[in-house]
Description:
Elements: E1 13-19, E2 28-30, E3 39-41, E4 56-63, E5 73-74, H1 91-106, H2 113-132, H3 134-159, H4 167-174, H5 178-189
Antiparallel strand pairs: 1-4, 2-3, 4-5
Helix pairs in contact: 2-3, 3-5, 4-5
Amino acid sequence: MWESEESGAEHEGRPGVLLAAAPEPGPVYFDTGSGPTMHQSTDWWIYDGTLGAPLATHLRGACSCGWRGTSHYLLDWETVDRRRPYLTDTTGPEHDWNAHITDVQDRTAPVPAELLALLDQAEKHLITLATENPLAALRAVAALERLTRQTASEAAFNLDTPDGPSWDTIGQALGTSEETARSRLTRYALGR
């Protein structure tokens, strides 16, 4: 529901639900008839107490990385339009998730401002070139792909030392989980 361009699927946000007397519930399953799979959902509006679903009492910010907001927002089902629940105000949980994303980004390795300016400039040129001269744009993209593959590979090898940072530190510096950091660095080391 909420996305951070830099974090992608690693930090997708959504309103999470809380029940009156239990921790966050698991997904709600829907029996759609015969077949090996059952549809499931964790959309907050599914937890409305109907069709066997539990009744949510509060919303909070939630992130795909496992983070959960500490602030709880009362869920008044009388104000929820059951046909268009997505119109319900969820700005409180979203604000908390945005603060979480800011915290994640504050712990990442800073990229020098001069390099960010150059990348921004290159992006503008490439977008223009893609319209004005698509073949030249594709040659430039191929050069960038070679450059990023080589740089990523060298950086991955430079981290793989006995006194190198822990996987947790690497994950935080990249704004990802430890598992994603390991996967990414393995891919970089292999030149993919």
